[in-house]
Amino acid sequence: MTALGVGLIGTGYMGKCHALAWNNVTSVFGDVERPRLVTLAEVNPELAAKKAAEFGFVRSTGNWRDLLSDPEIDVISVTTPNAFHPEMAIAALEAGKHVWCEKPMAPAFADAVKMRDAARRSGKAAAMGYNYIQNPVIRHIRRLIDDGAIGKVYHVRAEMDEDFMADATQPFYWKSEASSGYGALDDFAVHPLSLLYALFGHAESAITDMVKPYETRPLAGGGERAVETHDLASVLLKLEGGISAVLIANRSAWGRKGRIAIQIYGSTGSILFDQERMNEFQLYTTDGRPEEQGFRTILTAPHHKPYDRFIPAPGHGLGFNDLKVIECRELIAAIDGKKAHIIDFEEGLKIERSIHAMARSFAEGRWVGSAEIVE
After folding, report:
1. At residue 133, what are phi and psi to the nearest 5 degrees?
2. 175: left (phi over 0), alpha (psi -120 to 50) or beta
3. What is the pLDDT at residue 242?
4. Which among 166, 245, 298, 339 has the fewest CB atoms less than 10 Å away?
5. Contacts of residue 95, Cβ cutoff 8 Å, sequence gap at least 6
6. In angstroms, how far apart are the furthest CA atoms of the chain?
7. Mapped to the 3 state alphabet, what secondary structure does 157-198 carry?
8. Alpha helices of the chain — where are they, by DSSP H?
9. Residues 274-293 pLDDT 10s
């Protein structure tokens, strides 16, 4: 296919991550023409120009809508705060652009439905930014499960913990506003949910508790404001196939930096993985003599595809941004009409449905099925 023309909205952490992926996908994989980085959009025109020069974009603009009418742009990366995702993604799809949108889809389920519907109407590729599923370790764990390496899986525990909101003196900002969503549940827990989906399928029902570690946060100009979101969520789940699961998400966990811990228990073994040690996993199987049974650590290596595209030797390790490069290559495959390992807007909406079922469960104090969240 011809080189894709890329537009990017946003220059924060994920904006830079997308830019790195677009810049590196050809160098890493070598089987696609180098994308053309056309225009970067940021609300501040001066910042847009500065970041365009740093990220390698030809042009910049202070108005993201300029990207919609540009015939040189084929695909738009949306890396803005959650509340802006629906308007931008829908507008891009209606303008005939492919879309790569960071998670979650939208704070409101109705808006997520509109995004899915816009993708259906457009016929364009519409991918969510769930890059943790691209880890060669996660792909290999799925193969082990499919091959029956640990027998029949009956229970899974997933925890996501970081401490970026652990400090009680941190000033109030948009992640504590109700307009951003529920808090840890949708801003955060969607990532381990994406891993559960990639490994086992979607959540069918849930019962949830949510907590506000801090009821108020200080304002930068003095005073304080009530926190409107919950930074901790604990969920009991039933996954597809009747697998029981536990999901815990905590944005205020001192000492945790990027922890997504998955514990998988089967009839003949167990698998453990932690994103803070993303280049290894632990496998326990009951074959062999009991005297030598125990967890063994397996390091990623070139035979854990596509690790080999980055590094020719085992044990050297990939990083977070590398997962985004892999996701970028999968998106390009989807744009080219090929089978792709992505979470598109169709599957993304199912994750959103599960999240809103969890939130309803907390509000109503009962088990709620995902099917109860109707369009």
Report:
1. -70, -15
2. alpha
3. 93
4. 339
5. 68, 69
6. 67
7. EEEEECCCCCCCCCCCCHHHCHHHCCEHHHHCCHHHHHHHHH
8. 13-29, 45-55, 85-94, 109-122, 136-146, 184-187, 190-199, 320-335, 345-364
9. 999 999 999 999 998 999 89
Looking at residue 288, its pLDDT comes to 85
Taking the model in full, what pTM does it have?
Answer: 0.95
At 313-322, the pLDDT tens digits run 999 999 999 9
Contact by Cβ (8 Å): 360, 372: yes
Least Cα distance to 265 among 157, 113, 373 occurs for: 157
Confidence at residue 1, expressed as pLDDT on a 0 to 100 scale? 52
Q: Which two structure tokens, joined as six digits, stand for 195?
A: 């891993």
Start-to-end Cα distance in the chain: 36
Strand partners, 274: 261
User: Do 22 and 34 touch, CB atoms closer than 8 A?
Assistant: no
- Dist. CA 21–CA 322, nearest whole Å: 8
Give the mean pLDDT of 56-71: 98
d(CA 249, CA 194): 13
- Beta partners for residue 239, in sequence order: 203
Question: Which residues have a Cβ under 8 Å from the Cβ of 179 and sit 6 or more positions away?
Answer: 83, 107
DSSP characters for 336-357? Answer: TTS---S-BHHHHHHHHHHHHH
Please list, in sequence order, all residues whose beta carbon lies within 8 angstroms of the beta carbon of residue 182, skipping any fewer than 6 positions away.
107, 210, 229, 230, 233, 355, 359
Distance of CA 273 to the CA centre of its chain: 17
pLDDT over 70 percentage in the chain: 100
β partners of residue 99: 76, 126
Strand partners, 86: none
Say which amino acid occupies 57.
F
d(CA 353, CA 8): 27
Reduced to 3 states (helix: H, G, I; strand: E, B; else coil), residue 265 is strand
